[in-house]
Amino acid sequence: xxxxxxxxxxxxxxxxAVALINQxxxxxxxxxxxxxxxxxSLTTNNDYSRAxxxxxxxxxxxxxxxxxxxxxxxxxxxxxxxxxIREELKLNTxxxxxxxxxxxxxxxxxxxxxxxxxxxxxxxxxxxxxxxIQDCIVTILEKSPVPSKELKTLxxxxxxxxxxDGVIHKYSKGFQGLENAYDPxxxxxxxxxxxxxxxxxxxxxxxxxxxxxxEEWLVKYEMSELFDDVSNNKFAATxxxxxxxxxxxxxxxxxxxxxxxxKFAQ
Length: 266
Hints:
Layout: E1 2-6, H1 13-26, E2 32-35, H2 36-43, H3 50-69, E3 74-77, H4 83-92, E4 95-101, E5 124-127, H5 133-143, H6 149-153, E6 159-162, H7 189-198, E7 202-206, H8 211-220, E8 229-231, E9 239-241, H9 254-260, H10 262-265
Parallel strand pairs: 1-3, 1-4, 2-3, 4-5, 6-7, 6-9, 7-8
Helix pairs in contact: 1-5
C-alpha cells in the first residue's frame, strides 16, 4: 500500500506522514518514508520549474512503486502539484491519495506552487486547520486501513519456532562465519521434524544466521519442504526449540537456572 500526501508547503504533509508511520509501527509494520525535500537533497535537484518538479515526482513514484512491488508499505510526502501525474500513478498502483490543506497562515506561503492542482476524485480530504494530528490519522486509517499485523503473524496454534545452529544444523565446530553452515543435520532431526509436521505442527526456523544461507542448506539436505518459513526476526509461536534457551517461570529462579545452564557451566 502507498499513502501519498499531497498539498502546499506548510500545510502538514510531512507532519502527518511521520505520525502515520509511527501509528503503523505501533501495529507491527515497518513502513518506508519518501519525502520531497529529502529526495531533492539526495539527488541535488534544485530545479523548481515544472520540469524539475516533475522529475522529482517521478523519481519518488519509481521508488514507491518498487517498494510496493516488494510488499512494503510506503508513505510519501510531496507537494506533487500536477494532477495528471498523480492520477497516472493511481491508475497503475494501489495508492491512497491524501490531500492536505489549511486556511492557517504558517509562514511558508512564499513557497506555495502557483499552479497547484488539487485532487478531484478518489482521495482523502484532510483539512488541518482545526484538526489535531491524531484525529487526522484516525480519519486516514478509517478510510484506508491496513490489515492487522496480528492476523498475518499470530499463528501460535501448534507452531514451533526452531533454532538452526545446534538444533537442526549439527554445528560441531561452533561459529565459523555467517555464510558457513558447514555440517550436516543433527542426528534424528529430519525424522522427528517430519513426524511433527505429519501431526499438524507448523514448523518455522528462527535464527540469527542469514535466512538465504539456511534456505540453501535446507535445499542441499532436502529439508526445505518441512518448514513454512525461515526468519531472522522473532515471531509468534507456541514453543521455541533452542539449545541456548531455558524455560522461564519467574524471576526468582533465573539466577539459579543460569548458573546451572551448560553454556555458563563450561
